[in-house]
Amino acid sequence: MTPTASPTASDTSALGVFDDVVRSESSLRRFLHGLPGVDQVGCEARAAGLATRSIKTTSKAFAIDLAIRMVDLTTLEGQDTPGKVRALASKAIRPDPADPTCPATAAVCVYPDMVATAKQTLGDSGVNVAAVATAFPSGRAAMDIKLADTRDAVEAGADEIDMVIDRGAFLSGRYLQVFEEIAQVKEACGDAHLKVIFETGELQTYDNVRRASWLAMMAGGHFIKTSTGKVQPAATLPVTLIMLEAVRDFREQTGQMVGVKPAGGIKTTKDAIKYLVMVNEICGGDWLDPDWFRFGASTLLNDLLMQRTKMTTGRYSGPDYFTLD
Amino acid sequence: MSRIDVRKTYKLYIGGAFPRSESGRSYVVNDAKGKLLANAAQASRKDARDAVVAARAAFGGWSGRTAYNRAQVVYRIAEVLEGRREQFEAEIRASEGVSAAKAKTAVDAAVDRLVWYAGWADKITQVVGNANPVAGPYFNLSTPEPSGVIAVVAPRDPLLGLVSVVAPLIITGNTVVVIASEDHPLTAITLGEVMATSDLPGGVVNVLTGSQAEIAPWLASHMDVNGIDLTGVEDAELATELEVAAADNLKRVRRPSPGATDDWLAEPGLDRMTQFLETKTVWHPIGV
C-alpha cells in the first residue's frame, strides 16, 4: 500500500488498471459479482461495536471541529428561495457568529438553479458550492438531459457535482450503462469534483452497495455518497462501513484515494462522532479530512454548534441561540 | 411454599418512559429507621440534559392545549392518585416514619391540591390578565403565557410537597424537570407512574432522582431552561450559586426567603402559578 502524498482528482479510468474489466458488459458483471460477499451480521455487529467508543474532552473537541469542517450544509427543498440559500451560505462561512474560532463548513449543497445565488454569497471564502444534478433525486431522465443539467450547474459555478446513479439500470444488472453514465457525467463536470450517489436505501443488499462502490470508483468518481436524503433509510453505519472498506481496498489496488459522504439521517454530534471513529478504524487517519470525508446534513450543524458551545462555555446550550435552517 | 419477592426497581421518569440513569449509578435509600428501603437511580448531568430535551419537545403540544383540557388531565392525575392511595400511604410511612393517620392526611391533601390547581387552569387568565384602558380606539389585552421549561428542586415532603410545586407549573402550560428530594425519592417515581397513566403527555413532567448538588447546577446554567424553582434547596450557599448561574440566560428564579418554611397543608396562593408566567399584551383596533 502506498499512501499517495497529495492525491488529487482521481482519474482511474485513465490508469488502465480496470480496462479489462470495463471492456464489456459480461466482464464487468463477472468482476462485480466476483467481489467477496458482505457478511451482513458481521458487518452490522462491527458497525455497532465501533459505535460504542467513548470520545471525550480534547478528542471530542477535535472531532466536533473536524465534523463541522466536513459538513456539506444542505438544502434540497422545493420551497428553497434565494433568500434561504443566501442565509445558508452565510451560515456555512461562519457557523457560530458568536465565536470566530469556529471553522467554516466544507460546502453548501443546493439544486443547480441556486448555484449562482450561493456562489455570490460564498465568493472566495473557501467554502465550496455543491450542486445535485442528473435529475436528482430519482435519476430518471434521458442522458442528454442529465448531462445538460450537469453542465448548467458547472457553468453557474459549482465546485462539486452530486450525481445520482440510475438505480433501475443497476438493479436490473445493466452495470455498463451505469458505468458509462458516470463516466460521461464526469466528463461534463470538467474541473468540478464528482460525487456519486447510490441511494443505498434502494439498493436492497449490502452486496449491491459494495458493487456500486467499485463501479463508481472505476468510473472515476471522486466521492461515493450514500443517499439523496429523500429515501428512508438514508445513511446508516453498516452501509458507510462497506463503502469505507471499498475505498480502502481501492487505494491498495490503484493508489488512488476516493472520498466517502454519508448523507441523510445524521442529526446529532454523537452520530457524527460514530462515523469519524469508523473512518479512522477502517481507512485510517488519511481520510479524516474534509477532502476525503463529508457529511451531507442540515440539522447536524446546529447540534455540533450546541455541543461546541457546551465544551467552550461549560454549560448546556439551547436551540434558541442558533439560526434555524 | 414461600413466594419469591418481586421487588420494584426505581428508575427515572423522562419523556414518558422510565429509563435507568445514563451513568448506570444508583444510591441507597433508607427508611426513617436507617434500614435499606430500596435503591434509587442516581441521575447524572446527561440525564438532566435528556430531561430538558424531552421537556422542550413536549412544551409546544402541552402549552397549545386548551386550559380546559389541561384541567381535565391534572384532575385525572388526582383520580388515579386517589385509586392508588394505599401504596402512597405505605411509602410515606416507610420513608418518613409517620403515623398512618398523618400519611392519610398527606395523601388526602395531595389529591385535593391537584383538584384545586386543576380548577385554576381556565381561571388564571381572568385573574392576572387584563383589558387595559388606552388612549385610542384599541382593545389592549394582556394575557399570561407559560414561560417554557422550568427546572424544580422539590422540597423534602415526598408527596404533598412535590405535588404542590409541580401542579401549579403544568396547569398553566409549562413543562417541568423536577429533582426529587434526595432523601425521599421513591414517592416521586411512583407519582411518575401515576402521571404516565393519566393522559399527561410524555415529557410534560420529568422526574430525576439523585444528588441535588450534582444535578441542579447543570439545570441552573442550562440555556434552554426558562425558569428555576429553588424551593427544595436547603443549603443557602448552593441556592446563591444556582441563582447566579441562572442569571446567564435571564431565567426566572423562585427562591424562598431564608429561614422560611412552607406549610404544605395550608391553602396555597397564586404565586406558584404566576411566578412562571409571561404577560403578552396585544393591541387590536376597535370598530368595523
UniProtKB/TrEMBL annotation, chain A:
Family annotation (CDD domains): DeoC
SUPFAM superfamilies according to UniProt: Aldolase
Xref: Pfam families: DeoC (PF01791)
Top enzyme category: lyase
Reactions performed catalytically: 2-deoxy-D-ribose 5-phosphate = D-glyceraldehyde 3-phosphate + acetaldehyde
Record key words, sorted: Lyase, Schiff base
Keyword Lyase annotated: yes
TM regions (residue ranges): none
Pathway annotation from the record: Carbohydrate degradation; 2-deoxy-D-ribose 1-phosphate degradation; D-glyceraldehyde 3-phosphate and acetaldehyde from 2-deoxy-alpha-D-ribose 1-phosphate: step 2/2
NCBIfam families associated with the record: deoC (TIGR00126)
Similarity comment: family membership: Belongs to the DeoC/FbaB aldolase family. DeoC type 2 subfamily.
Name listed for the protein in its UniProt record: Deoxyribose-phosphate aldolase
Organism: Nocardioides flavus
UniProtKB/TrEMBL annotation, chain B:
InterPro entries: Ald_DH/histidinol_DH, Ald_DH_N, Aldehyde_DH_dom
Keywords, sorted A to Z: Oxidoreductase
PANTHER family the UniProt entry points to: ALDEHYDE DEHYDROGENASE-RELATED
A Pfam entry, by short name: Aldedh
Annotated protein name in UniProt: Aldehyde dehydrogenase
Aldehyde dehydrogenase domain: residues covered: 22-253
Signal peptide region: none
